[in-house]
Fold these 2 entries.
Entry 1:
Amino acid sequence: MSLSEELRALYQEVILDHYKRPRNFGELDPADSFAQGYNPLCGDQLKVYLRMEGDKVSEVCFEGAGCAISTASASLMTEEVKGKTREEADALFDDFHQLLAGGEIPDREFGKLEVLAGVRDYPVRIKCATLAWHALRSALAGGDVVSTE
Ligand code: ZN
């Protein structure tokens, strides 16, 4: 996939907006589970909190500190997975990871997550962009500390 300059600039704007004003930022109390993510390559650290309603994610929040990509990705993730079932959230992460890692682009709607597609061209940033998702997956599985290493 090759992004036009114009699209790239637009995506950059959305990423910066979510970095400066992260959505669903802060501790969720009480939470059903939470998990911490750490990306030693970049120094990104964050914690993802979940509240479930049966099999559905009813609330998801995050807190922590990291680079623009990891923070924006976490913010966008909270918006996309709210209301999804465990299975749907898991499947979205798999496809999102494939979108970033290169290779064939999964045939699905990514919504706003699409703005992170440019990370494809910067393999070292993939860990930044997927950190919150690894933490989400861990929280969905009961919670733990995850490292991208
Ligand atoms: Zn980072």
Note: Residues 76 and 112 are 7 Å apart (CA to CA).
Entry 2:
Amino acid sequence: MRIVLLGAPGSGKGTQATLLKNRLNVPHVSTGELLRAAVAAGTPLGKQAKSVMESGSLVSDEIVLGMLEERLCLDDVQRGFILDGYPRNLAQARALDTLLDRLKQPVDKTLQLDVAENTLLARLAGRAKAEGRADDNPQSVAHRLHVYQQQTAPVIDYYQSHGTLVRVPGEGSVEEILERIVAALG
Ligand code: AP5
């Protein structure tokens, strides 16, 4: 099964994908995680992406698509995947369709996690304290939410018009949300 997981920063994409991958026995592909790994390893791509990520802006479409394409060509994703963090704008949504057409791996379902802004802010503030992620400071969080509204939210309509979108309420316990997602997948 090939799933795209959409939602604002802090909506629980990473948390749910980590649990869902065990249920569905498919890998979790997170562009944020791939980029953070490149930053931590100090690769040329990571060096380019570091300050952009810390500010809360989007890394260039070209860099992220190249990185994603490499990941989606590995053997483990041939049985499916849960994609988290991509697409982040309409150009990425179209590029993903083209890439998956070429790989003959069309998306089966797109899940949108709906979470109120005050909950997003509380979760990200909690993670800032617990983990100190570089882009969880108040200024970067505000910018990430703005970028989400301006650039990523239109992607929801894109998938709605393609008929693959399911909206899932993303508030409540982690386990409750997981069960809603599993039910939505049918
Ligand atoms: P990315 O890593 O994708 O970050 P994000 O979208 O901002 O998402 P988060 O990781 O903050 O939130 P999440 O929805 O995964 O929630 P999580 O489960 O972690 O991207 C980071 C950056 O990389 C971007 O800003 C950009 O610079 C770059 N980037 C990535 N992809 C890109 C792309 N395609 N194009 C260009 N640039 C790209 O949960 C958040 C917190 O809430 C955790 O502490 C968790 O424990 C907690 N939590 C989760 N669920 C619950 C719950 N039900 N109850 C209570 N707490 C909960």
Note: The pocket of BIS(adenosine)-5'-pentaphosphate is lined by residues 7, 9-15, 31-32, 35, 52-53, 56-59, 64, 85-86, 88, 92, 123, 126-127, 135, 144, 173-174, 177 (CB under 6 Å).
